[in-house]
Design brief:
Elements (H helix, E strand, L loop, with lengths): L1 H18 L6 H19 L2 E3 L12 E7 L8 E7 L2 E3 L2 E4 L1 E6 L1
Parallel strand pairs: 2-6
Antiparallel strand pairs: 1-4, 3-6, 4-5
Helix pairs in contact: 1-2
Length: about 100
Amino acid sequence: KEIVEKILPVVDNFERGLAQAQEGDAFADGMKMIYKQLTTTLDDLGVKPIEAVGKEFNPDFHNAVMHVEDESLGQNVVAEVFQTGFQCGEKVIRFAMVKVAN
């Protein structure tokens, strides 16, 4: 758990960097391959992202940091994820930081 907790900020930084990458940029394409290898390795170790968007808010997996009124979403539904949460088996490694609707 301690090792995974130390690796997750690297995953976060990859995601932030890749979100800014231009399509067709060879360097960004290489970074995407490294990111995919990292996430595949975590998956092979049993570390999975916590599903959140569109799911009912669950304090066992989600940390609500914002609320929004949105009639297109149901009551107590996760509208947006600010930081992906991860779990290994039934154990939460890091809660998903989310915005909850209604």
